[in-house]
Design brief:
CATH architecture of chain B: 3-Layer(aba) Sandwich
Shape of chain B: globular
CATH class of the largest domain in chain A: Alpha Beta
Strand order of the largest sheet of chain A: 1-4-8-5-11-12-13-14
Number of helices of chain A: 10
CATH superfamily of the largest domain in chain A: Alpha/Beta hydrolase fold, catalytic domain
CATH topology of the largest domain in chain A: Rossmann fold
Distance between the termini of chain B: 32 Å
Oligomer: heterodimer
CATH class of chain B: Alpha Beta
Helix content of chain A: 25-40%
Largest sheet of chain A: 8 strands, mixed
Helix content of chain B: 25-40%
Strand content of chain B: 15-25%
CATH superfamily of chain B: Vaccinia Virus protein VP39
Number of strands of chain B: 7
Structural class of chain A: alpha/beta
CATH topology of chain B: Rossmann fold
């Protein structure tokens, strides 16, 4: 396989993405943390299952950096199954026969919710880097508007992994009265220096690509494919573990008997990463990647609560369940434990489980039976307290 | 930290756990430290409608608890108790765990800080069978409740009923109730002198509260 090609066809986004859209007009702008206002804007979302008469069985699923609202079913762009097929569906822990599951594309995203690739009505051109910088709290503000629109007074549960976990924590801290249970998975209350550093590498790769055109690549009919692919390759390594990489690839050579004394993809692991990079480019917008990684970098929940994380949860009636994975070095168990300490400091109702897995950060996306059992049990316990019956 | 695994609400629980459960007022806030697989916590939540939490050191126990809908965290009595604010609970339970901790005195102090009442149970090292084995056989005792050989025992701080009572007195902790149990689970009458309870009781449950 050659290095990522520069002359591949332009990304063709489906003209009409499946799912629902909620649009707010220019006279109802979203006030952002940066002080900027965004309007008009659209929230693209999917729902599964049925909202009960009491409107008490809704679960909001928050997606990670490169995820989207298509948690189950065939993805409209990639054709692959949704990112949380192991966890969501009939008979799964997030049981669509029992719960009403809502998932929306985050603000700044590229699958229907307003983001930098959309046209700024004020200029008639794609926002590009003139899109306002957004934060995790801004994403959650937009989601709350959606939940208001759906007439849901209190979400039964908010859950998500990685950046999804950041949104879960923000939800519980900002709107505790609107959340019954919160399940942040493989997350952190603030983005670590190491993680900011990894993101910076990714952003620099994108911005160093001449096809990025200072962010105006859509106007120039170009796509910074190489830069975005390199960003994805670097990030992908952080989602795995040394053990998982070694088990999968070792030092195996790619379709050859010996090394070629060149810079072609001699090793399987190189070929795999190049593939990950090039397929990512076909489904994700480079500027969205810049904005969303920035939102994660800025996340530090304690800051808006006087620098003390326990204050974020003080007086909270929310039932928390934190889940981490032993092999996750991007959002290690110590990050979840720090949140548990803060929750204990205010005697909040908290469960905390560390799942044994050597699959790295990505474990939360994979079929890990112990993980599924934990989430299932926690949700069942909460459903009992919430008075939700089995259908 | 090795409790039974059955989990139907109607299932009877171990006798010492039942005694602990009987000491807890319905609807109160309870923290069970070293909650094992959650048998007692589950009983309290379902039979006494308590707002129950647990801490457990063994990951398997934590996962089992959470998978059964209990609020339990992976943690350590020796390290995590100082996270909690004072008076966070009405009852804090330390069942057959005190002798596994690194610093029982510190743990005991933390118990009565974070909770109005503390319920502590432990196997009695003053029990005659324990004394007998050491005295006559010259070997480290192994009984039903001290069932690990000396080299792999987690029981790093075993104590007798008298030792425990003295420590409570020294720390200014009030013993509100003491229930001493024989091997067959019979209660030893409170009329029996403490020195004899200390000889005949295989285990004991104490209800403690903060002194003045």
């Amino acid at each position: 396989m050659s290095a990522v090609s520069t002359n591949a066809p332009k990304i063709t986004w489906p003209a009409q993405l499946p799912g629902h859209r909620l649009t707010f007009d220019a006279d109802q702008p979203l006030r952002l943390d940066s002080g900027a206002e965004l309007g008009p804007f659209t929230i693209a979302y999917q729902t599964h299952g049925t909202l009960n008469a009491e409107r008490s069985n809704a679960i909001l699923v928050c997606h990670a950096l490169t995820g989207d609202q298509y948690v189950i079913g065939q993805h409209p762009v990639t054709g692959k199954p949704g990112w949380w097929q192991f966890m969501v569906g009939p008979g799964k822990p997030i049981d669509t026969d029992r719960y009403f599951v809502i998932s929306s594309n985050v603000l700044g995203g590229c699958l229907g919710t307003t983001g930098p690739k959309d046209v700024n009505p004020a200029t008639g051109r794609p926002y590009g880097t003139s899109f306002p910088v957004i934060t995790i709290a801004d994403m959650v503000r937009a989601q709350k508007l959606l939940i208001d629109h759906l007439g849901i007074e209190k979400l039964f549960c908010v859950t998500g992994g990685s950046m999804g976990a950041m949104q879960v924590l923000q939800w519980a801290a900002s709107y505790p009265e609107r959340v019954f249970a919160a399940v942040p998975i493989a997350g952190a209350a603030r983005h670590s220096a190491q993680n900011i550093a990894f993101h910076e590498v990714g952003r620099q790769a994108i911005m160093a690509d001449p096809d990025w055109c200072e962010g105006d690549y859509l106007v120039e009919s170009k796509i910074p494919r190489r830069g975005l692919a390199v960003a994805r390759m670097a990030a992908h390594i952080t989602y795995l573990s040394e053990t998982a990489l070694h088990r999968k690839f070792g030092r195996n050579l790619q379709n050859r008997q010996k090394v070629t004394y060149g810079f072609d993809a001699d090793f399987e692991v190189e070929s795999y990463l190049r593939h990950q990079g090039s397929t990512f480019v076909d489904r994700f917008d480079a500027n969205s990647y810049l904005y969303i990684t920035r939102a994660m970098d800025y996340f530090d929940l304690a800051v808006e609560f006087g620098g003390a994380l326990p204050n974020a949860f003080r007086g909270s009636k929310v039932r928390y369940c934190l889940i981490s994975f032993t092999g996750d070095w991007l959002f290690p168990t110590s990050e979840s434990r720090a949140i548990v300490h803060a929750l204990n400091a205010v005697a909040a109702n908290v469960s905390f489980v560390e799942i044994k897995s050597d699959k790295g950060h990505d474990a939360f996306l994979l079929d890990e039976p112990e993980f599924a059992k934990t989430l299932n049990g926690f949700l069942n316990g909460c459903a009992e307290h919430r008075g939700l019956t089995h259908r | 930290m090795n409790r039974m695994t059955t989990r139907r609400p109607s299932t009877p629980i171990r006798i010492d756990l039942q005694i602990i459960a009987d000491m807890v007022k319905p609807g109160s806030r309870v923290l069970d430290i070293g909650c094992g697989d959650g048998a007692l916590l589950d009983h309290l939540v379902h039979q006494k409608q308590v707002d129950g939490r647990g801490i457990e050191l063994e990951q398997e126990g934590v996962n089992a608890c959470v998978a059964h809908g209990l609020s339990v965290i992976h943690g350590d009595a020796d390290e995590d108790l100082d996270d909690y604010p004072s008076d966070a609970f009405d009852y804090v339970i330390l069942s057959r765990t005190l002798h596994n901790t690194r610093d029982p005195r510190w743990v005991l102090g933390e118990l009565v800080r974070i909770s109005q009442h503390a319920i502590v149970s432990f196997p009695n090292f003053g029990y005659w069978r324990v004394r007998w084995q050491l005295l006559l056989r010259g070997r480290m005792p192994m009984t039903a409740l001290f069932d690990d050989p000396w080299h792999s025992s987690p029981n790093i701080h075993p104590c007798t009923i008298l030792d425990f009572a003295v420590l409570c007195r020294d720390m200014g902790i009030k013993i509100t109730r003491q229930i001493s149990l024989t091997k067959t689970g019979q209660r030893i009458g409170p009329w029996m002198p403490q020195a004899l309870s200390n000889l005949f009781a295989e285990q004991a449950v104490f209800l403690l509260s903060r002194g003045n």
